[in-house]
Design brief:
Elements (H helix, E strand, L loop, with lengths): L6 H12 L4 H6 L8 H21 L3 H28 L6 H30 L1 H22 L8 H5 L32
Helix pairs in contact: 1-4, 3-4, 3-6, 5-6
C-alpha cells in the first residue's frame, strides 16, 4: 500500500510470482551438476541482490510480476545449491553433525532476521529492506566466491584434507600384471 498497490492487487501479483516457484528446480536441473556449486551460489546471490533492488522501485504490474518471478526462481537455485554445497564441505564421518550445526545456525539467524527486517521497514521503509537484503546477498557472494572451496566432482574426504580415506591415484601406465588377475570375492572366498 505504501508503494501505491492495493492489498488485493498485491496478492494477485504474489500469486503470479509464485507460479514460477516449481520452475526454479526444474530449470536448475539443466545446470545443477554441470556448473561448480559455489559459483551457482555466487550467481544466485548477485541476481537476488539486483532483482531485489529493482523490485523495490517498481510499481508497474507488468514489471513487478516478472522481476518477482526472477527472485522466486533465483531463491530456488540459491536454496538447493547452498544446501548441497554445505553437505559437500565435510568428510563423511562428520557430515551429519556438521551440516546439522550449520543448518541450526541458519535457522536461528532466520528467526532473528525477521526482527531486523521489521525494524528496518518501520524506521526506513520498503526500499531500505531490499537494500539490506541486497547487502546480505553481496556478503554471501563475496564470502563464498572468495573463500569457499570448489566441491564439484571432488571426493569429500579430499576437500576436508582427510588423507586416511583418499585412495592415491595411479597412472594408467603404472598398472602391474597383478591388477588384471582375478581376485577372490570377499563374500565367498572364490575367484570369479
Amino acid at each position: 500500500m505504501q508503494q501505491g498497490v492495493s492489498v488485493t492487487h498485491s496478492l494477485g501479483y504474489v500469486f503470479g510470482m509464485q507460479l514460477a516457484a516449481p520452475l526454479g528446480p526444474l530449470a536448475a536441473m539443466a545446470f545443477a551438476d554441470r556448473i561448480e556449486r559455489k559459483w551457482q551460489i555466487v550467481g544466485a546471490a548477485l541476481v537476488m541482490a539486483v532483482a531485489g533492488l529493482a523490485f523495490a522501485q517498481l510499481t508497474n504490474p507488468y514489471l513487478i510480476i516478472p522481476v518477482g518471478a526472477i527472485q522466486t526462481l533465483t531463491a530456488a537455485v540459491l536454496n538447493y545449491s547452498f544446501h548441497s554445497y554445505q553437505a559437500e564441505l565435510y568428510p563423511t564421518r562428520i557430515r551429519a553433525q556438521a551440516v546439522g550445526f550449520v543448518y541450526s545456525w541458519s535457522r536461528l539467524s532466520g528467526a532473528f532476521s525477521g526482527f531486523l527486517i521489521a525494524f528496518v521497514l518501520g524506521h526506513y521503509g520498503v526500499p531500505s529492506v531490499f537494500l539490506l537484503i541486497a547487502g546480505s546477498m553481496a556478503v554471501v557472494a563475496l564470502s563464498i566466491g572468495a573463500m569457499g572451496p570448489p566441491t564439484s566432482r571432488r571426493a569429500l574426504e579430499a576437500l576436508a584434507g582427510d588423507k586416511r580415506h583418499v585412495r592415491p591415484r595411479r597412472r594408467a601406465s603404472a598398472r602391474s600384471e597383478a591388477d588384471f588377475r582375478p581376485r577372490r570375492s570377499p563374500y565367498t572366498g572364490l575367484s570369479p
